[in-house]
């Protein structure tokens, strides 16, 4: 009997028992998961950094990680007030130090009072510290012009990622043609496709309209929904606003149309609003789904089910490493909400430091507080720089022949479309690579610039993109954009 | 047509659309999840606390939460050195402060160097900060008498819970009679049954031997395995050592027998070793599965698949709120390990503050460091008090007629068996409650003592237990134990 390489189902003949857990026996849903943002490009970037450290000669002196929305990794400084309060909470001896402003101390004491044993080291209740849920509720009310928010509908989470997966988990049911389908935008943030694969739900793609600055078009939603009904049971619609990777900010009318559509078609709405503080373009404004839904009145306000997600990872604070976030649920069935509560309790609680940061983000210093001026200045500086970088990115890319970039109205990314010559496409196919993966790999090898191929987010067949964050510091961003444009020109010549 | 209450499948007649997400349409696996540690008892405890605050008269003045292994919530103080380093990392301005010892500063600087942008606010790589994985590897090597550990086999996690669920996720496959079965101890820590329900895997119970101080008996493993093979495909065996809720510490011979059994029966081993620092009984000693497995030599050392879990939530530090932990995988198939890496990357990274605490736990101050003496004293004080409380608990309970408590050799819990009079059992059944739930509820209402009924962990049919942590401060623990014993006597009289 011949043993074929890669044939995992046979007992090996060298006396070794076959492993219990192999590619063939493991969870097939996990195998189907894809995740590009930390995929092969990033692994290669890590290797290159190591080679540089070892003194290997490269055509560049540093790897620039423009692949992930991680502001502080790109040099953005933490907001002082947030870290002061957190340090006080972590090490309450510091409450005696004269080096911390009064309002930071007050905040820290208030939070410690609300912690088990007055310590961040205690588990919180599973939905998050009650006081902080109340802070979040007040924040939402203010954000939405006074529309009430109930702390009991707010669940703190381990980053928004965790909350998104929790809500998807509730929604997944059925088999074969009754399997839950979930509509997601294409291009998408790949957490969605990954989580749906893992949960064995059906991913239903709707395409954003690149020609209209990545706008969401209800006719396209309808097309996707109708086609999906053949083979699954679509029950939820995910929206990312402001968009990742696409950077668009949805107009209010568009949100209304989406809500009407979801209501008519009986879809649970999931609004990923982690970039709600990241809106740069003139004329663009963030409208929360909760607010629009409520203002539309009954039956939408009273019946449409919605989950809205937020995070401490983005905005002006960029505190990714702390993994704080929340979900607000609206019009959720009470019994389902109990089930959600139970599900959360299995994982005990979200990390408390992330909860504390969230509390700062939703209740920052007031104008009368000693820390207000500095807080406000730091916050504005970050947001102003992001706005300038958004503009610069769009501008430089659009000056390059063969690159076309929609306005970066919000979030932290550009998602330019690149023309790739047919011979490059062919070469990529020979190598078994997506053409934009081939392009991005070459870009990385020759320039040290690490961006993610559009194929990792999804794109219309035959189009090619990459996602680049706008986060590198201003002095690096312009040369970076120019280098990238020049590389594209060279690449195009090479394969013409 | 009559509408029955609770009939979710009909469109309501009051003009409301039915919700998209209802008990009937939601994920049926989530519905099956049970989680007692934060179940109805704890909800009632919360209510009682609120009533006390509102001035409602009760037969007690405070609710004592002996339901959850959360040391700091019960008043244990954080270890100073851990919090100093963390505060320095959170707010690096403090590195200039004269109030922090040199070694804490060195540690903090070393960690910040290893963080993206030198900040805890950056995402780490998905498997955790490389430097900290190396620290963990060195810790394991030392713990295991020099047996090597590879940092690349170590994955940091959001508490041990997260790592346990990740490994279970990899193992789950098949349908009907080929569904993955996982052997878990009864009584168990209910994360296991909850995760298996959620993942739609088959839970295979093996009973610990209460008559032998909750020892694990391989004959019972074999019984459970054989019966399970009728209806599922058992592929993994979970061990909790030291045990939660049962407090036993496994003897080395027992671990060897378990490893031999797992190898012969082709079971993936999951060793939950989060209580490895919590061993109190004379003659008891912690042996890691990794060490025993390695010392058994081939084929065990070279082939038996193992995942071992640890956490910052327990031990002497009890830093539950930070959600730090890790898993070390041994003999995992390389391709599966890649899949695991990919799966982890979807969730971005574990919370960085938890990673930092883990780094301190695995590389504490050395004897030559300025913080050593204080660190050591604090650590010893906590462990010595836990040991005393373990002994006291066993002793007081065993003096009470109708209560029998095995020695608390390790971990943080006693799991005494209580005799409940037949009339109490009958009364409970009339109320639709498990008899021990009835007992614990009455205990809570009359004494303010919050413990978890044995039925939440599993127990042999017809036996009744409760789990009580040994964490209340010494001065509260003795009266608590006595009050509980007296309540049991009264309860017994009442229903005789
Ligand atoms: C659209 C979107 N949603 C959710 C997340 C998850 O963020 P976190 O889990 O860090 O809160 C991200 C992170 O990049 C994102 O871009
Ligand atoms: C046996 C056991 N495993 C795992 C855990 C999870 O701990 P954490 O997720 O806080 O690390 C616990 C917590 O009580 C436990 O008792």
The gyration radius over C-alpha positions of chain A equals 24 Å
Q: Give the total of beta strands of chain A.
A: 14
Tally of individual helices of chain A: 17
Output mean pLDDT of chain A: 93
Strands side by side in the biggest sheet of chain A: 2-8-7-6-5-3-4
Oligomer: homodimer
Please state roughly what percent of the residues of chain A sit in beta strands, choosing from under 5%, 5-15%, 15-25%, 25-35%, 35-45% or over 45%. 5-15%
Low-pLDDT runs of chain A: 1-12
Can you tell me the CATH architecture of the largest domain in chain A?
3-Layer(aba) Sandwich
Task: Give the helix level of chain A as a range of percent.
Answer: 40-55%
Content-based structural category of chain A: alpha/beta
- Ligand catalogue: pyridoxal-5'-phosphate
CATH homologous superfamily of the largest domain in chain A, by name? Type I PLP-dependent aspartate aminotransferase-like (Major domain)
Q: What count of structural domains of chain A? A: 2
User: The CATH topology of the largest domain in chain A is what?
Assistant: Aspartate Aminotransferase, domain 2
Overall body shape of chain A? globular
- For the largest interface in this structure, which chains are involved and how many residues does each contribute? A-B, 101 and 100 residues
What is the C-level CATH assignment of the largest domain in chain A? Answer: Alpha Beta
How far apart, in Å, are the first and last alpha carbons of chain A? 50 Å
Strand count, sense and closure of the main sheet of chain A?
7 strands, mixed
